[in-house]
Amino acid sequence: MLEIKNLHASVEEKNILNGVNLEVKAGEVHAIMGPNGSGKSTLASVIAGKEEFEITKGDVLLEGEDITELDPEERAHKGVFLSFQYPVEIPGVTVTNFIKTAINESRKAQGLEDMPASEMLKKIKEKADLLEIDRKFLSRSLNEGFSGGEKKRNEIFQLAMMEPKLAILDETDSGLDIDALKVVANGVNKLRNKDNAVIVITHYQRLLDYIVPDFVHVLMDGRIVKSGPKELAYELEEKGYDWIKEEVKA
Amino acid sequence: MNLKNKLLSSYIAFEDHLEADSPIYDLKSKAIKIFENEGFPSKKMEDWKYTSLNSLLKTDYSLSPKKDHAVEFKEVKQYFLHDIDTYKIVFVDGVYNSFLSETTHDKMDVCLLSAALSKPKYKPVIEAYFNKVAGKDSLTSLNTAFAREGAYIYIPKHREVEKPIEVINFATGNEAALMLQPRNLIIVGENAHVQIIERHQSLSENAVFTNSVTEIFAEKRAYVDYYKIQNDKANASLIDTTYISQEEQSNCRVHTFSFGGKMTRNNLNFYQRGERCDSTLKGITILEGKQHVDHNTLVNHIEPNCESHQDYKGIFGDSSTGVFNGKVVVEREAQKTDAFQQNNNILIDDKATINAKPQLEIFADDVKCSHGCTIGQLDEEALFYLRSRGIGKKEARALLMYAFANNVLESVKIPELKRRINKLIATKIGVHLGFDL
User: Fold this and answer.
1) Which of A17, B60, B135, B195 fits as disulfide partner to B225, beta carbons 3.0 to 4.6 Å?
2) How many whole angstroms separate alpha carbon B385 and alpha carbon B402?
3) Would you indicate the residue range of the signal peptide (chain A) (predicted)?
């Protein structure tokens, strides 16, 4: 599904990613953990195509195709979805109009007709129910005045609507209380199948109790320095990152 | 001969048509003297600092067009909101066109100012209202001196007019360059309701220079909902001056949509002469090329317990320029005034310019006045967010521009007009989005 080879990226001449290697197969869940400033969010943004970051070396392959030269919208059309750590507020565009536009623009890119209104409505209702989203919420302006939890829930709602191949969840757990966390995790789990994959970026092991990863990777100074099974997350929770730093030095 | 001298000399000929004992003869004589003394405004004047008329004044305009104004309905159909069943006052090259118009004297007057100025039965109304709220600046005076034709709308008290009245000024391009000076007088009686749409539309690429003046009187509890559609051709320029006099508890709203034209100057003046008046001034400006639009607004809070709401959004592309000069005056008597002014601008290109100048003059001590002004670019984070959801760059930019203008569009109360403006915005931005905001 996704293959990242020796990826280097910088912003304003500052190197942030220094040779990331990662392979994610269909049906898998990968967790990326690491201390603040290790490059986790940058990795997510680079995969999604944020132009602010310059890829100085390496490849990002999606189903064997290099996507590093593609625009963010083209990557989205190919099935990449980034759930934002800080979703942007867009006053004047309702959640419903936004998601309709997103879906139909993606369909247009694939040479499909607009989704029929009745089908769209049905899908919106179904996914809103899955994430326990109030219908009134859908006619509000996108993210405007939303609580932290509402924003994240709205991200996963969009994820559910777009049904991407590769979902990257960038600190989706931050700002969520335990009940909301369960709802969101449940939403993500329901959407999982053998043909898609999930990358979960998080500081805490808590989310991983609900979205159980197949692999846990530790990102430090722009490199994946350690990978392991889900138990690695517990170890990190307990011991912090210092022991890994020591290990890397040695 | 420069335009000023040309106007002055043609006034002498024009004057011959006036009857010396008509109530407006004196008015006009005084007005032309003001114009003679002051001439056209220049950039040296504070209010005209950012708008130059120089290039406009160099053109040799025809002041009295030829009489041939044949316009086929199908040629202009697109400019009407409703083809049938509504009242319209249509002028072609400054001359009333009865074929395209639909006037009435049934329980209200929707007709011509020339008729109102000349017929004895209108004399009391003309004496009570004509030129009573209009200012004495040189451009208004120039219009007053030449005022011969325009819309006359009189809505008697308690009358609720169901459908919007359209006032349209077409310029055919029969003349290489034409100057027009329409003058409208609108009186909305006690508790009467009316919606009016005004449009200046050139039908060719020839130069047109319009100096339009409109006076609106809203009596007690009257409701006036006024829309100005400014989407003219590239060689058409407009100075549009509107004076609104509001009595107790009246509610007047003016929306100005400026998308087209070469140079547009809007002078919009509200005078609240009774308590608990409500005034709304909103606008969307979207410019490109070298277009220039200048919004000069005044809300004069004279009496207590009144409100005013201003909200102007501007999107400026290429090397277009915009001006927002919004003045709110709260007089000493006008306690408990609630005045709000908002002006937000987006500069799309490096060479686009906006000059924004909010002015608040407050002489009362128990008031709520606020103003906000922003100038910025499209938010890059928001663009990335939209694009990461599969929305193309162009569409994402358009969506953000729509969203930006949406506040103003939402308060348009005529659904068909809202739909049309939505379409105009989409055309102007160059995309089609699958939904109406």
Assistant:
1) B195
2) 16
3) none
Higher-pLDDT residue of A53 and B406 is: A53
Q: Which of residues 361-420 of B touch A (CB under 8 A)?
A: 379-382, 384-393, 395-396, 399-400, 402-407
DSSP at B332: T
Number of domains in chain A: 1
Over the stretch B196-215, which tens digit does the pLDDT of each residue have? 999 999 999 999 999 999 99
Which of B386, B400, B434 comes nearest A100 by C-beta? Answer: B434
The CATH number that applies at residue A108 is: 3.40.50.300
Question: Which ipTM value was assigned to this complex?
Answer: 0.95
E strand or H helix at B374: strand B368-376
CB contact under 8 A, A90 and B386: yes
Could you tell me which of A159, A170, A227, A239 has the C-alpha nearest to residue A203?
A: A170
B50-77 mean pLDDT: 87
Query: Which residues, in sequence order, are CB contacts of B417 under 8 Å at separation 6+?
Result: B81, B164, B197, B227
Give the span between the Cα atoms of B243 and B297, in whole angstroms.
10
Q: In whole angstroms, give the CA distance from residue B2 to residue A241.
A: 82
State the average pLDDT for chain A. Answer: 92
Structure tokens, A108: 């247009």
Of chain B, the percentage scoring pLDDT greater than 70 comes to 95
Do the chains contact at A90 and B435, CB–CB below 8 Å?
no
Residue B433 has pLDDT above 70, yes or no: no
- Residue A116 is classified by DSSP as P
The whole domain housing A21 covers 2-249
Each residue's pLDDT tens digit, B68-94: 667 888 889 989 987 667 899 999 999
B338 at the A interface (CB within 8 A)?
no
Q: What pLDDT score does B21 carry?
A: 64
Residues on chain A touching B396 (C-beta within 8 angstroms): 73
- In which residue are the tokens 């609630």 written? B338
Task: Give Cβ neighbours of residue A112 (< 8 Å, ≥ 6 apart).
Answer: none
